[in-house]
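Aim 2 progress update. The chain analyzed this quarter is reproduced below.
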Amino acid sequence: MQSADGTMPHASLVQILAHPDDDLYFINPDLQRALEAGHRVTSVYLTAAEADGRNIDTRDPHRLDSPPDYEGYSEARQQGLRAAYATMVTGSRESEWARDVVSFSTGVTVERSTLLAAPRVQLFFFGLRMVDTRHGFAADVPPARLATLWTGQAAAQLTLNAAESPLRELQEVTRDGLLRSLAELLHHTRPDHFWTMDPDPWHTAWDDERGATSSDHQDHTATTQFALAALEQYIAEGGVPPLVDHCVGYGNKLWPSNLTEQAWAEKKRVIEVYTSADGHDCRHRHCGDRQLGDGSDIRRYGWSTRARYEGGTDWLHLQADGRLAAYAVLGGRVAVWTESAPGSDSWGRPALLPGAGLTPALSVAPDREGGVHLVGLRRTPGQGGQVDVDVVRMWRQAHTRSTVPWESVGNPNERSKDWRRCREVGVPEAVVDPSGRLHVFMRNFGSGVSARRETGEGWAAWEDLGGRGMQDCLTAVLKSTGRIQMFAANRVNGVHWYQEDVYGPYKLQDGVTSADPDAWRPVGGLTPLQIGRSRMAVFYREEDSGEVVCVRQRPDGRWNERVERLGGHGGTGRIAALRQLTDRQDCVVLARRNAGNRLSTAVIATQGRAEVPEWTDHDVLIARPPALALDQAGRVVVAVLGTDSRLRVMRQKTPYVFDGFGPLTVV
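Predicted structure tokens:
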């Protein structure tokens, strides 16, 4: 049953993580929003998270004087996690749990915790040791851990049971046993939304012999490989592909924070329940993870909740036949929803296009004929932990309605012939030039930007466009003059590439505006929008506040000295912006994900300086930035993907924006 406001209760959210605090640091507040919405939440933790076995603040100079208690510390982390979840769901850390044992057909047994006040919330603990040193430290036989289990260097991994676990026997878990068990769990939970960590984190240092010094914990990365492989097994066996998200881990501390102080304070309160730093009267031998104590602020990676593959706002497209089509990646496959007739409120069920292995973000680049190029990033796992990553393109032609199959566009790091470098690329951004040829931009291994363009003879070589320290959030636009512009953000500023001539080379302008440096602090993607024959406006979120900010270009090409603040504090993800120009009005419609992870919309004037608009909130929990498009009748249509992986659309009543929108409906 669906409600009139388009919400869908009881969606299934599954997250597969390494340690029992990864969700509190890297997924919250999104997790808390899902719990508040009444979603069925299944959280899976692969390691015992025993670390050095000392449940003592790491800042205590005498902590190493205490002997390790691995089972006790693992129990403390589980107890802290249960208290944190109970707090998020019921408001009381003391809410009771049932603990039992679940057995899979593989023979693997795990501990399950069920929140009695809300049985839809379950935690599964696989208990794999973080490091199993039984095999010694010989150079050719590394200690067994998740990473070596994944690569095949270790045949099996030993488990560790928490001190008060209902599990009694230790196990040796093989790679195949773990994968099969996870796939069985997915068949049981049937996820609509699937969360895990970053499969290909950025490096902080590089050595040609040893490879990357990762910005993330190796357990996070290995867990993600297992999670993706299990998800692929589940889909191959008939499971419905879910919406997938990858959360950045420790690498968050390298970038501007995207949570407001209020959002971080909410997140921190839950973490302090987990660490037993919330001032409660502890009545349990193993209260929580005291290694962290009250020092969660020190770990800056918690100040953001960032998707590794941040989606854009270009995924709603008006086809040549007048029907709208919406595109998204579900379980590594492209799904497309299409209107049954132009301008109707009837849509078909999502069709899955051929191909698999895509990361969650997709660039949708329309051509002038009404066709569309779909550009994504494909991961192909190989032997020994190797994974090949390349950009791929599918072209859906307008008038012939034929589809050109996926074609590899390559990888800007492919000259190195090192797959480890090639996996560290960003989300591709694509745009079609006036001659109908595709241009692809992406963040490269060196944290700059690379581009590749089609020519009459095929694909040209990759170009290095420069830039450094770029956030992975590029946005390109074709202006009415036929010139392409591409916008991005680094750690402190906006960056802009432009063409002086149609089909010409790209030139870099470092800093879209320099007159108001204190205000120009973008976090995440920029959204450029043409607002005049030779003028652009750029919308983005401000670091720390999450406020929506606009900076406009003057007719002479210079940028306004001051930015415009448009309110809308909080929330993450890009801002969708669309100009609606008729004989009655000239305005810009904005849509965003707000601080409650719901949809918010607003309207501002295209010309002149905008005042802070009135934002209208819509009660639907969304997982992606919204998209905007004009339908065949010139009405603005808003599209969002809910956390239940279902599409919702909202259409203007008339092409006059102030007549408002109709209801938000579920497709």
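The longest strand covers residues 522-532. The CA atoms of residues 54 and 369 lie 65 Å apart. These observations will guide the mutagenesis experiments scheduled for the next reporting period.
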